[in-house]
Amino acid sequence: MLHVLAGGLADLLWPPLCTACDAACAPGEPFCRLCADSLVDLETTEQRLSFPRLPAWTSAHCRFEFGGQLAIAIRRAKYGGEGSFSRALGHLLPPAPRGCDLVVPVPLHRRRLRLRGFNQAAELVRGTGARPTLGLLVRTRDTPPQTERPPPARLHNVAGAFSVREPERVRRRRVLLVDDVMTTGATADACARALRQAGAAEVHVQAIARAPL
Questions:
Q1: Do 85 and 187 share a domain, yes or no?
Q2: What is the pTM of this model?
Q3: Predicted confidence (pLDDT) per residue in 153-183, tens digit
Q4: 111 lies in the same domain as 193
Q5: Helix segments in 25-174, DSSP class H
């Protein structure tokens, strides 16, 4: 009881700040009212993704259009050196499919993880209250950023860049793969392909936002 009262008092004295503009916002919410009202909600599935081949994932869902205040918040979460921002954004992920056995964040290469200090996709998972499965899916090559690459080059850039340690842990399992933004789907497909090759029965992809090319 005292813990709850202390938490409520802290929220009154130091209200949480909007992840996009730093205005005060309601406890448990990542955005102030103005920034929240700017979000463009959508329902994106694999059938609507402009993907040049049959993807390895079973389903893929993004909840919002990438842009405006949401883009600012995601960039701050990723590059601002603050994992708590990503945790705050976690509840913006689409609802998870039922029956998934493992929640796997899209991994960073160890060099990039060392520089950034955290994996934003793993923090998104923690923000939902779920426990991310770390160290199972690994990025074996430190690929250049996908930004500003045309779709065919993105596929080539991440082809074979991921592998699964201990394949027996994913064999016949349903895997939920989580990232912050999906653009062409090349990274998600490369991750899903590695998981399926390791024996995963299904791979479902979740992202907060879908970015236009």
A1: yes
A2: 0.86
A3: 666 667 788 999 999 999 999 999 999 999 8
A4: yes
A5: 33-37, 68-79, 83-89, 110-116, 120-127, 151-158
